[in-house]
Please model this.
Amino acid sequence: MSRRVTLAARPVGFPQNSDFALDEVEIEAPGPGEVLVDVLWTSVDPYQRGRMNEARSYAAPLQIGDVITALGIGEVVESNDSRFSPGELVVGQLGWQEYAVARAGTLRPVPSGLDPPTLALHAVGMTGFTAYFGLLDVGRPRPGDTVVVSAAAGAVGQIVGQLAKLAGCRAVGIAGGPEKTRDLTEVYGYDSAIDYKSDDVTAALDGEHVDVYFDNCGGAISQAVYRRLNLGARIVVCGQIAQYNAERPEPTFQPGLLIVFRARMEGFLVSDYASRFDEAARRLAHWVANGDLRWREDVTDGLANAPRAFIGMLNGENRGKALVKVARSRS
Ligand code: NAP
Ligand code: FER
Model:
């Protein structure tokens, strides 16, 4: 049997435990071109909140009763495709469940040298790729630039700061709370850190000339950063997590600022760069292996706790990439 977490109700505002249900179904047999995967790790990510809404976005919404969409890592149990064999580790959209049947073309092998393999869900996976393409392709940092990052201690933000340093920039991170702000300077190499929960962000940015703003959150924090833009600034709109649980998102940007600062503001989706994931994975894995890229993951044990980990992540409780360990002892 395979346990799974499904959408029980569409969250109104902030998700609650009762929006999710845990059930158990028969393990499906893989069809032609499909692979049966024993899920070992699953991911909790902000974009999952968007899938729970009825409104159509860049991906189709979940329906009530659907397994929650999630990236995961698992071991191939049975394969009807020549690209994968039993025993191999793969990463892909496996969902919050113990066993997943996936089309082989949607899976990527986890490189055997990747240590730990969970890196394929963060620094050398989706959130690392987001940092890589968002900063380097959309933000186009130049040596000497000041790069400001919001949600800087999270999965994407921790990588953005370090890539900014590798590009020769000054990196300023904004995060919530003393532990995370300490991690910004002591673990992730940010030059300075702002705790938006206790500091006045506008005052803390006094004297900064922001060349690249990598925006993970939107809202009041972003409004403070817009006031400190430099001429020719690039605003990378990666995420707006401060708005995801709002029933009516607040407009926080005045387009006139783009004229004042001759600035560019651009949104992007990591999946648009799928044809270059191998390039990003190779470079990120190299930087992790040689110690240039440090990372922190925050593990919750047990599939049944995935909703709690997800709600906690939206609340800022994760210190590093939020992951759920699904692997269980087999009797
Ligand atoms: P994460 O940063 O590891 O976790 C989410 C963090 O958001 C929380 O830990 C919390 O950190 C912060 N947060 C929550 N509510 C906030 C608020 N009201 N104001 C400010 N910060 C708040 O998650 P992630 O996976 O790295 O994602 C970060 C952002 O990137 C999200 O907006 C996500 O949607 C976006 N993203 C975009 C793409 C893309 O392709 N465009 C891909 C992946 C992720 P604090 O404790 O510091 O508040
Ligand atoms: C994807 C496109 C975007 C994806 C995640 C995102 C897991 C995240 C977007 C966001 O957080 O705003 O294909 O795959």
The mean pLDDT is 96. The first strand starts at residue 2 and ends at 7. Residues 45-47, 127, 130, 151, 153-157, 175-177, 180, 216-217, 219, 221, 238-242, 268-270, 313, 316, 318, 321-322 surround NAP (ligand 1) (CB under 6 Å). The two ends are 13 Å apart (CA to CA).
